[in-house]
Amino acid sequence: MPRKYSAKTFPVIARGSTSFSELFTSYLQLYPAVSRDIKGREGGTYAESLLRIAGELAKAHPGIDLWGGTVRRLDISQEDHQGLSPMEETRRDNCLLEEALRYTMRKYEVGKGTFEYLFARNLKERLRRETARAHRRQKEVAVLEQEAEAAREEQRTTPDATTQAAYRWASRILGRAAYLLDSQTRTYIEMSLEDAADEDIAIKLGIDTKTLNNRFRGERVKARAQTAIRQFVLGMPEHHRSLLWRHLQEEVGLTPESAAKVLACHVTPADSVPVMEEEALLAELGWLEEEKLQDV
Question: What is the pTM assigned to this prediction?
Fold first, then answer.
């Protein structure tokens, strides 16, 4: 993680600085050897020259703040704002200019290159490292965002327990009512539920795909299936029909409208009809043993 900037990390003599010129002038008192390289130029003017060099170097690193690291703005209330320097107002990360300036002054030796050259070299290296850190952070954020989006997508596409149970009962009842369908419609539905291609279904039915699409268009097949399901459900013993409705509402959690879609009809069970769990209900309906054999 990037270091947080605080003027408290500056030497005491520089903590009141509110500009680069003031910072430079303060550090000259700590590192007087640098004064020899200025060669009579005023500290403020020399600092402005360094700042121009820094600005040119920073152009190759867009998004990196010379007063900090990655560009950010602090959330500062009006009360907190008073007394903060421009550096404190606009950055949170390590202060690159201050670090480069102090390091260069500390390491500067007369006769081993000009101060401007050493300052530029040190700042350039810090900008390079800060850019690399920013890229790593961006990649980390991108990965986290991808993982979050994948989790959201999985949540959107993964049916909840209620949806799964409703689909299970709808498939179960359709299978029970299939004998009421004509053979071609029954074959079409069975193969469609197995994700068979239209061409394969057409071959099985002995027709071409155009005829298949015309004869078994979505709404037509749905209407036939609903008719068969309704006929099957209404043909069940009333007590079984009431148990099934009560289970879909109370145990599965379907609304009356959703339960009616599963059964293709409305049922009004008596208050005395109990709520049964799925396996117990299957046993009561006489379907349990058959389903166990299918699962083997």
Answer: 0.49
